[in-house]
Amino acid sequence: MLTFKIDKILRLRLWLLERFKLGETSVTLFWAGVVGLCGGLLSVGFLRCVRALQRVLTHHAEDNLAVIATDLDNWERVLIPTIGGLLAGAILYLGKRLTRGKQSTDYMEAVLVGNGIVRFRDTVTKSASSLFSIASGSSIGREGAMVTLSAAFASWLGRARKVSTPRLRLLVACGAAAGIAAAYKTPVAGALFVAEIILGSIAMETFGPLVFSSLISTLVVYQLLGTTPTYLMPTVFHVGSNWDYLLFLLLGILTGIFSPLFLKTLQGGEKIFHRLNLPLTVKLGIGGLIVGMISIYSPLVWGNGYGVVGDLLCRENLPWTLMMATLLCKIFATSASVGSGAVGGVFTPTLFVGAAIGWLFGTLVNSLFPALMVTPAGFALVGMGCVLAAGTQAVLMSIIMIFEMSLQYEVVLPLMLGCVTAYFVAKGLGQESIYAAHLKNKRAAKELLSQRVLTVTNLLRKDPPTVAETAPFGEIARLFIACRLNNLYVVDRQRRFLGVVSLHEMKPFLHDPNIAQAVLAADMMRDDFPTLMVTQNLSEALHRFTAADVERLPVLDEEGVLLGYLSKTDLLLTLAK
């Protein structure tokens, strides 16, 4: 006989299932939201750690590293990045010793071809190293560590819940999207970054959770850091006439030509440092030293360039010679930081390069054609999107990101024209994405993986909840309480599949305990439940799911023995990739 507690729990579960239609999608969205929440908190925590360490190293309360460098003496500009690089390298060295030289998996590899595992210890080590590099003035972005921390937490959470590999990959992707969204307050662009660049797909099975995670992460940042746009313009962006679009077309061509040069400079820095047969600690110290030496001439190269971009969007009286020199110096400083092995992102430095080119172009137009009265800040905003689109080869993400960062609606049409033009010009010159080298081998491995993951076996989830055909009603009820599945598989002594007991079949007996005492699994079993054979391919499995309209299907061998079950969500996530 059912106890009062089990009876109440079963009634509640049935009520929730019928009223809210809770399924795998709802569960996935819930955990994507948890990842977004924690990813936002981790990102804010990392930013505050950067600012605290920055004040310790520079003895300045100002958050803008470019402003801090301007106020420092020359010897301080050289010494602080050098010390920061040495400390960052030492942390990486100690981290490798602690992990005994095991090769770590980054979030892109974990999502694309890996099993979704991003080791948290490695991530903490890299984030600590990035903390010292960023706080000491290295020319790299903060977003790299923020994304990796969020992705590593998502991986840990998924493994703690023992989710399947496709869902673990999706959770890691949600963590990456949450990190990007938190770094720039761009919920849609954060999801598009992962969908366009890493997954190469905007299928709703993956894009929906990515958006939800990004949204929650952005709301966390709004709550803790404010709702001010990432880049605030004092005036509303405005296009004077339709003829002005020709200027944005020219800007797209210019940035499309310049973007490959910027990428080759970064790659050249990596090659030079690779040829130096020196310990990693020394390389990072040299990278910091180079940034420090450049900052003697141009202190604005310190940091990721965020503060300088803000000045370009807000001030119109900047000397063009200063900005030209800063642009060139920034490119070489970024090349030195990235090439030396400093842990960080190139996203924000790329935005700086685009803003500087756009601002210089707008200033030139103003000088040659003063009657047009164009605003250099507007060209700086569009230039950011153009270089980003050419560099990442993700046009849609670039357009949406610049709009979300500025909240300037009228910038969308110039952005569309400039970003598409820059993309095709850069593509025509043979440029690949900034992440191409990073993802090329992984995508090749993905192709091999996709050739292997063709049958149900690869997505099989073992140890399904089973009952004997003679199991009494009370035992079945307790098993439904212990697991969250809505179907129990009925098997004989040889584990041959006989049928399914559905949670809905329990409802009539919950109102009459006397009858329930006499009911067995065989009395409620549905023996015509659709099944899958272990040798069937994924296409056949998809057709079976379409006809059956169920969340899970039992998987049998040739003798009818139950081996496990296949989840429709796992199947759709695999096919969506």
How would you describe the overall organization of this protein?
The protein folds into 3 domains: 22-229, Clc chloride channel; 242-278 and 290-445, Clc chloride channel (Orthogonal Bundle), CATH 1.10.3080; 454-576, CBS-domain (Roll), CATH 3.10.580.10. The two termini are 48 Å apart. α6 runs antiparallel to α7 (143-161). It is elongated and about 90 Å long. The protein is built from 25 helices and 6 strands. It has helices at 4-20, 24-58, 65-71, 74-98, 107-112, 120-135, 143-161, 165-184, 187-199, 204-225, 245-275, 280-297, 306-314, 320-340, 347-368, 376-392, 395-406, 412-428, 436-452, 473-482, 507-510, 513-516, 521-524, 538-548, 568-576; strands at residues 466-468, 487-491, 497-502, 532-533, 552-556, 562-567. β2 and β3 form a beta hairpin. With 577 residues, it is mainly α. The strands form 2 sheets. The chain has a 3-stranded mixed sheet. Strands 4-5-6 form a 3-stranded mixed sheet. Helix content is 67%, strand content 5%.
